Task: structure prediction
Amino acid sequence: MNLPPIIVIGNGIAGITAARHIRKKSTKPILIISKESRFFFSRTALMYVYMGHLKWEHTQPYENHFWKKNKLDLLEETVTQIDPNKKTITLSNESILSYDSLVLATGSIPNKFGWPGENLKGVQGLYTKQDLENLEELTPSIEEAVIVGGGLIGIELAEMLHARGKKVTFLVREKSFWNNVLPKGESALINKHIVLHGIDLRLETNLSEILEDENGRVKAIQTDSGELIRCQFVGLTAGVRPNVAFLKDSTIATKRGILVNKYLETNQPDIYAIGDCAEQQEPVPGRRSIEAVWYTGRMMGETLAKTLTGTKTAYHPGHWFNSAKFFDIEYQTYGLVAAHPEDPEIHFHWQDSNKNLAITIAFDKNTNEFLGINSFGIRMRHELFDQILSEKRSVFHVMEHLSDCNFDPEFFKSYETEMISKFNAMQHTDIKPKKKHWSRIFNNLIAQ
Amino acid sequence: MTVMAIRMYIKYRNNKYQILRTTSVWFFQIVFAFLIPEILVRFDKPWYDFKNAFPLDYDFFFSWNLNSLIASGGFGLFILVWGIVLTLVVVPVMVYFFGKRWYCSWVCGCGGLAETLGDPFRHLSNKSIGAWKLERWLVHGVLAFSLLMTGFTLYSYFSGAQVVLGVKTQTIQNIYGFLIGSIFAGVIGTGFYPIFGNRVWCRFGCPLAAYLGLVQRFKSRFRITTNGGQCISCGNCSTYCEMGIDVRAYAQKGQSIVRSSCVGCGICSAVCPRGVLKLENGPLENRTFSPEFPLGNTLK
Result:
């Protein structure tokens, strides 16, 4: 007898992680459906394909034979309907498939805010494989481009177009780049870096209209100050939202995203949602209900795989961490650093702006507990900061052990002494840096 | 090599590891492979490259070399002793502390060429599991072949027998010299950079690399540490690995990379956009530990 499979809709990081980990523990049939691409690729690598660092096949973390070998069936189709009562889904070719469990991992779509002209030719986001292909096709006819929205995809798209010799204007609604996430000094550092790369950065500027030429293609945009900017391409990167439109006639409950409880269950039996498309009804304290981040997608996939292989497990991500790259400046963060700290959180900030290096350490001014770190241009050890956060160590402990935490390549110049002397001056302390020690760095590994 | 070394300086101007490494590999090639041997010959001493270790220097124990070393008196004997100590003591001890990178990408001549002239071809190395299987058979096969040949050679040298176990020693030497020394190391090893990548000889053929690799895999402090759960699977590391290691496969699992073939060029770490990889020499315990899930998820 053919058992109905576990069906995963979406082959991004969340869906694929779930499928892989289910397969490790179970022999149940698994079917992964995606119209975007047959084989899993890393969405974060799209920009490197455009810039010529990678070819398409390099973005695929598993060889093509991997899927067959592990009995993960792939289907390139679009799902149009879900019937939770009959436990079936309908595809765009009208065939109907039964499922044992259904995993919704449909990701995000770029935000559009009803701008006039937002659907013209030459106006798009950068999220899918198809977005990249469209952009590639348009590229020869682009001289000037406008990016709307100052987030992580916006700055990546600016870098991509700039790398291909396009003149880029970057409209950012906020007073300073990504200042709802980054504290002032860091945000200013990135502003400067963007401009230095020859990008025309327009802060506190909104898009009001996209203008069309005689062929239905964008020819210019108008800003809210009335300025016209000529362009043949508009990148819409004002955030993303869950890709849930296909569920609007179903009985699966949605708000902004697909509503799930802490076990990633939707309101319908045997249907789960993970990754960007999921909206937590009771998010873990301190975390947002929708977190459209690679890492959280992966973790939800890992968690759900446990549940679907017999160990019911709640989604409980550990300490927050993230990373990005702003042109040449790498960014890593561990723990929580508020963009606008509120009492009792205070910040220690150190910057070497000529070298594009900076760190911000957040701590509690009453208890001195370390809360988080943002690091620019200096790599930091995830494992150690995770441990420091779990053990609720003090900011003094962190300052003392900065050399352990440094993850830069060997022979790189280190700045711990400068950082500590600035910290000592600010806090009237007398912290002495401790020499890097393996037994502290690898203590978890050695203990195992 | 010099021109391409300058290219490396420009390309990796912000990476001190790469600058020092390029300087080192260039220095050893110019001074040890060209200047010192030429000076030695001018002083009527045998031509010798002090950094070229057996079994890469496969004819070190050939009778003509041994005879010429012994014939040139004290200095020749010094070279003979140095050559043996280099292979049996210096190489494994250094690999224990630093990994095989100290040789393959800081000192070696073949490595020097690959890391400068070959740099634009590094992404052409094949990353498939099939290529990895072939690599293990071939490179260890060449190591076994070179040791066998040397065994025959030394037996012949000391016993005077031309034929060992029914095979002429000279024939084996000729086959090795032609197939491995000329065709593999020479023609395929450098001429095929644009097809198989810049380390095709080091990866599939070099017996010294195989020997160093065994030490690195089983008894060395070297590894490439993966930074917790920060990998985004973008694939830059794997693409630019000249030895064809699928670095991403380890990094995305949160596992550090311990592979016999890694020559420690450090490019994976340099091209990683999220600061995930670091070459370092730490304690031996659990270097190869693989977590069930990468760091970040509590799975309560």
Remarks:
- Chain B has two domains: 2-213, 219-281.
- The first helix of chain B runs from residue 2 to 11.
- The longest strand of chain B covers residues 222-226.
